[in-house]
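Re: [ENG-882] Designed sequences occasionally contain unexpected residues at chain ends

Forwarding the minimal case from QA. Structure tokens:
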């Protein structure tokens, strides 16, 4: 289904659980204001854009959730600067939405143009030092990834303001409603005062995914080597019959001559790991692997289509960077795998039977590949 970019932005606000948008309508943001009709996101009209920025920051501070403000191009956007600088200093998750002249006017001196072309004010540069992420969205083909980066900056462990500046004509373009499906919305850390029953246990969630999977696969990256987690990866693979593919930089995490090794995943490999993931895997566990262009075969959709995805990385910036994981765990890979193995070894689970079935499937796959020549 196709919807307008302005409608997608409103749905993005809803997915961020934004309750209120503070702002002032102007010509270059009217499509977004029109799309807010019928939305559960409320709007508050301000008398000056600076008030919108400070209101959004105050709302974020009190509610402990993402807030938002909106202004038109040029002076509307520049009036936001002081309030957004304050939100940046206070690490408040404020989404700033600004309009821009149509892209065909860039560099021609359009009314309130702030594209940075032809001597115009550079709106993106103006906010660069006071936002965690900023983007002028001139095209729609990368819109999903822009929203992914924005969500991670707003909901990550070190939140702060995010600027999305959208030209008027781009707001009216049609895009697939599914563009939000690949956006990772990280769960905020639980309140320190919350009781144990309210705390999510991502390691337990990952253990549940592994138990439920017929054919899980580990993709081990350089992060496993850097954290000294080779033995932990090998133990998880052996004890639970989980095949291991490595990224190019992750070669050596497991010995490639062992029965459960799929070898290297990526354009420089023989393709065995790729075929197994596409044909059999129902759960892919990324351990310290960034899933870059070469490892992912230009992010081939077939690699992860219809599969559950889990990701463990000590770098929070890697979590959900290029795909949306069902479980994302930030932490030392060795320590996380130690907890995971302990969780998986609880009495009453048939780990041995599952491991044997998974090894048998891998052997059958290899036999079929050899028979096919």
């Amino acid at each position: 289904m196709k919807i307008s970019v302005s409608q997608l932005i409103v749905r993005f606000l809803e997915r961020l659980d934004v309750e209120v948008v503070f702002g002032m309508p102007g010509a270059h943001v009217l499509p977004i204001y029109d799309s807010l009709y019928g939305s559960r996101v409320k709007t508050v009209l301000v008398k000056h854009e600076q008030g919108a920025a400070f209101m959004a920051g105050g709302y974020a501070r009190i509610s402990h959730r993402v807030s938002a403000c909106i202004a038109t191009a040029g002076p509307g956007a520049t009036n936001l600067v002081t309030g957004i600088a304050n939100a940046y200093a206070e690490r408040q998750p404020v989404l700033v939405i600004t309009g821009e002249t149509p892209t065909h006017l860039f560099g021609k001196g359009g009314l309130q143009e702030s594209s940075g072309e032809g001597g115009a004010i550079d709106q993106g540069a103006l906010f660069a030092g006071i936002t965690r992420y900023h983007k002028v969205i001139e095209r729609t083909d990368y819109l999903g990834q822009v929203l992914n980066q924005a969500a991670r900056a707003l909901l990550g462990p070190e939140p702060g303001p995010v600027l999305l500046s959208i030209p008027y004509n781009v707001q009216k373009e049609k895009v697939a409603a599914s563009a939000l499906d690949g956006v990772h919305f990280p769960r905020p850390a639980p309140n320190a005062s919350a009781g144990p029953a309210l705390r999510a246990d991502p390691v337990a969630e990952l253990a549940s995914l592994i138990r439920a999977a017929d054919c899980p696969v580990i993709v081990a990256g350089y992060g496993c080597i850097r954290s000294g987690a080779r033995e932990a990866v090998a133990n998880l693979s052996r004890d639970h019959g989980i095949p291991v593919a490595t990224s190019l930089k992750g070669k050596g995490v497991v010995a490639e001559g062992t029965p459960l090794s799929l070898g290297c995943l990526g354009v420089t490999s023989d393709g065995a790991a790729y075929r197994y993931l596409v044909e059999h895997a129902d759960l892919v566990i990324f351990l310290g692997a960034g899933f870059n262009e070469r490892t992912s075969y230009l992010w081939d959709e077939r690699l992860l289509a219809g599969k559950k995805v889990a990701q463990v990385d000590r770098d929070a910036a890697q979590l959900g960077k290029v795909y949306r994981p069902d479980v994302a765990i930030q932490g030392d890979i060795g320590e996380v795998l130690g907890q995971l193995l302990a969780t998986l070894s609880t009495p009453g689970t048939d780990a041995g039977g599952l491991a044997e079935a998974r090894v048998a499937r891998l052997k059958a796959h290899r036999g079929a590949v050899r028979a096919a020549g």
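QA comment: On inspection the terminal residues look reasonable. The chain has two domains: 2-182, 202-371. Proposing we downgrade this to a documentation issue.
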